[in-house]
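User: My instructor asked us to take a sequence, write out its structure as tokens, and then describe one feature of it. I'm not sure where to start. Here is the sequence I was given:
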Amino acid sequence: MRAIRYEAAGGVVVDGALVLVLQRPSRDEVRLPKGHVEKGESAKETALREVAEESGYDDLETVADLGKQTVEFDYKGAHVVRDERYFLMRPKSLHCTERKKNELQFIPDWLLWDDALSALSFEAERAWVRRAREANSE
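Assistant: Let's start with the prediction itself. The structure tokens for your sequence are:
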């Protein structure tokens, strides 16, 4: 089995009691926004870019670095190792930018903390929301 390793970064965006999640009906998933760290880009820059691209929300402030974790899984005949870094973010406004056609697969949704934890498809992303909730209450 071939191995793939890459870095990704994303954001847990919160607005009061609400958490931004992305519905992905084509895969019957609920996810957090994140994506590949591009060459020459910091994890924080990636996280802000990916949140804007996938959700449309582009007027955000980074509140805290939630740390790193490594996730491993098998996908399409490959063993994937992804080093993830997430940031706690808050909207400065609810301004949205127009999303690219390929990002329309994601439907942004604001859920209460507990509802977001229940809805997210993957435990690794629920762990990020729990970290964000703790950092948000400090």
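For the description part of your assignment, you could build on this observation: The mean pLDDT is 94. Try explaining in your own words what that tells you about the chain.
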